[in-house]
Amino acid sequence: MRPTHIRDLLAIAVAVGALVYALLWWSYQSLPQLPATASVSVLLVGLIELQTASLTRRRLAGRPGTRPILPLTVARLAALAKATSVVAAVLAGGWTALLAYTAPRTDEFGTAGGDALAAGLGLGATVVLLAGGLVLERVCRIRDH
Q1: Is the dihedral of CA 72, 76, 77, 79 positive or negative?
Q2: Which is it for the CA torsion 130, 136, 140, 143, positive or negative?
Q3: d(CA 122, CA 68)
Q4: 16-36 per-position pLDDT tens digit
Q5: Which residues cross the membrane (predicted)?
Q6: At a CB cut-off of 8 Å and minimum separation 6, what does 101 contact?
Q7: Is the per-residue pLDDT at 145 higher than 60?
Q8: What is the value of pTM for the model shown?
Q9: What share of the chain is helix, strand, coil (3-state, %, to 5)?
Q10: Residue 107, pLDDT above cutoff 90
């Protein structure tokens, strides 16, 4: 498995963002308003991954008070981290498109202001998720000795 590259994540985010923006342009008026708490679960998963990265780093280093970690567990965490990065790129594209569509239209649509707020919060939560995925993947890399 090769490391995640930022350019790949950017390409995913741009492609999804363009698609979501087109869908919003076509059907925004028929969609219900998003709750401001829509991104809480994304934030929690990102924070959990950051905590997992910290614990994994300590276990791999053999710090006192930690148990050794199985190599298969590290491989599974690396796969989870890679998948999380891709999901975060998809979410970033979607939230950015929603923010770009709704922010200039707050006077035009009654729900646009609330949706812009939800998109901004979602984008912030997605940054935490992306950081969690990338940090966890970096911790799980095999080091050359």
Answers
A1: positive
A2: positive
A3: 36
A4: 999 999 999 999 988 888 998
A5: 9-28, 34-56, 77-104, 116-136
A6: 21, 24, 25, 28
A7: no
A8: 0.90
A9: 80, 0, 20
A10: no
